[in-house]
Write a structure and sequence with these properties.
Shape: elongated
Strand order of the largest sheet: 1-8-6-3
Number of domains: 1
CATH topology: OB fold (Dihydrolipoamide Acetyltransferase, E2P)
Number of helices: 0
Order of helices and strands: EEEEEEEE
Radius of gyration: 13 Å
Largest sheet: 4 strands, antiparallel
CATH architecture: Beta Barrel
Length: 81
Amino acid sequence: MAEVNRKIHTIRAEMVANVLSISVSAGELVTIGQTVLLLDSMKMEIPVLTEVSGKVIEIAVVPGEIIQEGDPLIMIEEHGK
């Protein structure tokens, strides 16, 4: 059996924030520019968008969680081009 070359993209927090909502679930296909999370920082709602297309393989946060800069949020297995 041939080895599958998987490329995993991790979306990370760019700032300290509170997770307001999660728009996707594990196993769901996402496209570039799709909103996957909504964060709250300093009373501003900040959408988190994907930079790759692929399949959500893990969601590392839950609504209500306070995240720190650099924390992993969502892991996506990129689709080949």
